[in-house]
Specification:
- Its EC number is 1.3.1.98.
- This is UDP-N-acetylenolpyruvoylglucosamine reductase.
- Pathway: Cell wall biogenesis; peptidoglycan biosynthesis.
- This protein is α+β, with helices and mostly antiparallel strands.
- A hairpin with a 2-residue loop joins β15 and β16.
- It contains seven helices and 18 strands.
- It has three domains: 76 residues, Uridine Diphospho-n-acetylenolpyruvylglucosamine Reductase, domain 2 (2-Layer Sandwich); 125 residues, Uridine Diphospho-n-acetylenolpyruvylglucosamine Reductase, domain 3 (2-Layer Sandwich), CATH 3.30.465; 65 residues, Alpha-Beta Complex (Uridine Diphospho-n-acetylenolpyruvylglucosamine Reductase, domain 1), CATH 3.90.78.10.
- The chain is globular.
- The structure holds flavin-adenine dinucleotide, NADPH dihydro-nicotinamide-adenine-dinucleotide phosphate and uridine-diphosphate-2(N-acetylglucosaminyl) butyric acid.
- NADPH dihydro-nicotinamide-adenine-dinucleotide phosphate binds next to β9.
């Protein structure tokens, strides 16, 4: 029988074996990926998706790992990190970015072209693919309001174009979460604007963000979604949980909705803090906090 191993089938692709994902996640926690690849093109991504399907290898796709907790046992099978697929093209008032492009770079490119509409995303540290997947939003704006279409690869390796309606956006939700599609690019429909005003708005939002969020520490942003009718940070604050620490994971004193890595945290520490916060808020206020952060991988 032919050798179907990834290194035999794709000798030209660099595969990192048993690679610690804590090197890549924003929380700096998480166990190893059995096989980790940074694909450099859609063609390469497509080949790997088809290989994973044919060999029944579990497949995981990651962007900038800024909304992710990988359990300490790591991820079996093949993991793709798309950050090397990061081309950004401008065509009139359309900005088309590959999935691995940083959202922050994409907002900079829009500013350079005097295009308005993406300023709200200036400080969101995800990739374009992760932002579409999550329908990232801040300060009155959301990805859903600016994306005209996204290209995805299905698990069969077919390319599909999904328009805004088909992406079925909701609060921190898109249809990509309901299927196993991989976002490979997105097009943002913007408007001609004044570059000084665009820059001023981006700078203002980044200052506001830095004054409220603990950007000095590794984190995964808001850990929980906002429950209808409540403010998450306020609930956790009023429950007296700020400063609550397990190992190296701590409920931030600056913003109670964030859990920061104060040094040496494991994913298990993060999960213990999350569980305690959920239980305490439920007991004190009767409100269920649903995680916004995506939790994947195996326990150690
Ligand atoms: C300091 C800080 C501030 C933040 N502020 C905000 C904010 O204001 N608003 C906000 O919405 N979020 C915020 N976040 C969270 C995070 O940046 C966003 O959710 C972002 O959209 C995640 O993108 P990512 O590329 O990092 O995704 P990842 O963390 O890599 O992945 C998140 C999920 O998306 C999936 N995914 C990623 N890329 C793809 C793809 N190409 N195809 C299919 N699935 C994919 C992954 O499988 C995973 O389930 C913040 C995070 C931090 C650390
Ligand atoms: N759950 C849902 O369905 C909804 C989710 N969202 C999401 O929430 C995020 C933030 O929304 P945003 O665009 O900033 O707009 P919002 O109007 O929802 O919030 C703006 C800010 O106003 C302040 N604020 C307003 N009312 C109160 C209050 N009663 N108590 C305490 N603080 C208050 C808070 O800021 P401060 O820190 O300055 O006090 C809050 O962060 C976005 O990412 C959006 O996607 C938004 C609306 C609904
Ligand atoms: C950081 C993220 O997104 C952020 C986004 O950057 C900002 C700006 O628009 O609005 C949301 O945060 P937020 O700070 O408004 O969210 P909440 O945790 O609901 O806090 C709102 C309110 O709680 C109060 N609050 C917050 C923190 C705290 O320690 N104490 C406190 O009392 C404040 O009054 C604050 O205004 C997004 N979070 C969610 C879950 O929707 C993310 O999704 O990862």
């Amino acid at each position: 029988m032919m050798d179907q191993s990834i290194t035999s089938v794709f000798p030209e692709i660099k595969v990192l074996m048993n690679e610690p994902l804590s090197k890549y996640t924003n929380t700096q926690t998480g166990g190893p990926a059995d096989m980790l690849v940074f694909p450099e093109s859609v063609t390469e991504t497509k080949k790997l998706i088809i290989w994973a399907k044919e060999t029944k290898t579990p497949l995981t796709v990651i962007g900038n790992a800024s909304n992710l907790i990988v359990r300490d046992g790591g991820i079996r099978g093949l993991t793709l990190i798309l950050t090397k697929m990061n081309d950004i093209q401008i065509n009139g008032t359309d900005v088309t970015a590959e999935a691995g492009a940083a959202l922050i770079q994409t907002t900079e490119a829009a500013y350079q072209a005097s295009l308005t509409g993406l300023e709200f995303a200036a400080g969101i540290p995800g990739s374009v693919g992760g932002a579409v997947f999550m329908n990232a939003g801040a300060y009155g704006g959301e990805i859903s309001e600016v994306v005209s279409e996204a290209e995805v690869l299905t698990s069969d390796g077919e390319i599909k174009r999904l328009n805004n309606r088909e992406l079925d956006f909701g609060y921190r939700h898109s249809s990509v979460q309901d299927y196993h599609d991989v976002v490979i690019s997105a097009t943002f429909k913007l408007r001609a604007g004044d570059s000084n005003r665009i820059r001023a708005r981006m700078d203002e939002l980044n200052r506001l963000r830095a004054s409220k969020q603990p950007l000095e520490y590794p984190s995964c942003g808001s850990v929980f979604k906002r429950p209808t009718g409540y403010f998450t940070g306020k609930l956790i604050h009023e429950a007296g949980l700020q400063g609550y620490t397990v190992g190296g994971a701590q409920v931030s004193m600056k913003h109670a909705g964030f859990i920061i890595n104060v040094g040496g945290a494991t994913a298990t520490d993060y999960l213990s803090v999350i569980h305690h916060v959920q239980e305490t808020v439920l007991n004190q206020f009767g409100v269920e906090l649903e995680t916004e952060v995506r939790i994947i991988g195996e326990e150690k």
